[in-house]
Amino acid sequence: PFHVLVLLLERAGELVTREELRDRVWPENTFVEFDYALNTAIRKIRAVLSDDASAPRYVEAIPRRGYRFIASVRVSPKSSCRNAMSVTEQVAAVDAFGGRQRKPLLIGMIITAFVLGYLMRRSPV
């Protein structure tokens, strides 16, 4: 799900075709039931974001073509990213508030931390 989300975020507002997702996320020599794997990844992303396929706020399905990330995406300046909590601190903060109810929040924070790290690494110096 992470790699699918990163690709959707990189192309926010644009259609990302099923073929492009297959080529970029699952290498040519990977043997997987692609439709099932992609549908599962999208379902997990929607679950973490509390998104609804029938009234999407984040991930929009374009039938038989692909998906589009429809929420606005902003890249924060690097200085504000340095002040963000580490993933370990985020996990500790979530654990302090209780387990199962906070699991989606924890997953969302971890995904956000990875995406921010990925985007910061890709930005020009």
Please describe what this structure looks like:
- The protein is globular and about 35 Å long.
- It has helices at residues 2-10, 18-25, 34-49, 78-82, 87-96, 103-122; strands spanning 16-17, 59-62, 66-69.
- α5 (87-96) runs antiparallel to α6 (103-122).
- 54% of the residues lie in helices and 8% in strands.
- The protein contains six helices and three strands; from the N terminus they run αβααββααα.
- The relative contact order is 0.15.
- A three-stranded antiparallel beta sheet has the order 1-3-2.
- The chain folds into two domains: 2-69, Winged helix-like DNA-binding domain superfamily/Winged helix DNA-binding domain (Arc Repressor Mutant, subunit A, Orthogonal Bundle); 78-122.
- A hairpin with a 3-residue loop joins β2 and β3 (66-69).
- With 125 residues, the chain is mainly α.
